[in-house]
Every structure is written in structure tokens, then in C-alpha cells.
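note to self — DONT lose this again. spent like an hour looking for the file last time. sequence + predicted structure for the chain T wanted, 210 res
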Amino acid sequence: MELLEKHVQQDKSTLVQQGISMGMDYEKYRDLVHHLVEIEQTTGHTQTEANIQYTQLNDRRMKRWNKTFAIPEEVQQKVIGLNKPLVFLAITESWCGDAAHSLPIVHKIAELNTNIDFKIVLRDEVPEIMDAFLTNNARSIPKVILWDKENKTILGEWGPRPREATEMVLAYKQEYGKLTPEFKQDLQVWYNKDKGEGVLQDILDLLPLE
């Protein structure tokens, strides 16, 4: 069993390194999403009207988070003091509402320290990587994998949403069987009220901070 687990981890590590090598940085991803809005398209294999509209909405959401979210000074100092070379590898698509609320915050963390790189890959373009990091056997996004560049190991993974929001989703599914449009709207309200604190704390918990 231990040998099998070791092989699984080695396979995952190989896939993460492949994702990092082909990933785009956050600014390139933002440019891509904005361009898709202009030409009324979306990332992913499915060019539905709904996904195109979500991409347009998410472009505005990310722009707002980029402008308004600020990491507290005491937290900034902890991240700045991190001397371990890391990579945040995010798996996402432009239509994903959870990603629009989360990735700008991950970016804000990464840009505090030159030891942290942030790379993004699109889920439908990297099915093997996505399938190595499923959530409850589903290709849920966003998914953020923390990679230790020195030791070439996975430090942890996060996603598709903050812990409190995850609990809300699980409770709703248990009661109603699936997520309704009304609940998804309530979830967006939760993100706005949370003001990014959930994502920030979850990612900080995975970092080797002193």
C-alpha cells in the first residue's frame, strides 16, 4: 500500500510540473478573459450562452476584487518573510464563479513574495491533471495546488471554494439534492460579505509560515 501511494504521489508530482511548465501567469489569464468578453466567447469545450455570460460577469468580478481586496499588513509581513520557493498552480475556466472570487486573492498573496509563482491552466485543456485532483470524484474548479520547487513535492491543495462556503454547499445538497440558481445567487452574496477572508485564511493555512 505504501509503495502504491508513493507511485500515486510521483504521478501527481509529474503532472503538476507539466502544468506549471505550460501554465500562464495571472495577468495573461486576465487578458485572455477580457479578450473573450470582447469577442463574446468563453474558455472550455462548451461555448454555451450561459458560459459566455458567466465569463462576462466573472471578468467584472475579478476586476472588482483586484481593485478592492487588500491583505492586512501583519499578514503581508508573514508572507514577505517566506523564503521557500513555491508555485501556486490553479486549474480553472473563465465561466467559473468560484474562481472569479478566489483567484484574484491567490494572486494578491503570490505577488507579495518573489519566491512565489502563480500559474494557471484551463481545466478542459489538462484533463489528466484535473483528474489527479478531483473533489468528491468531480472535476470541481477552481483547484489550487501548492508546489515546493526545492523538494519537488506537493505541499497541499485547495478548492473549489473556502471552507465555510463548502459547508454551505454540502448542507444544501444534502437537503435538496442539487444546487439551485437561487442558492448559487446566495453563494455569490456570501462571497461579497466574506470579503475574501475565507480564501485568504485557507491559503495561508497551507503555507509554511513562521
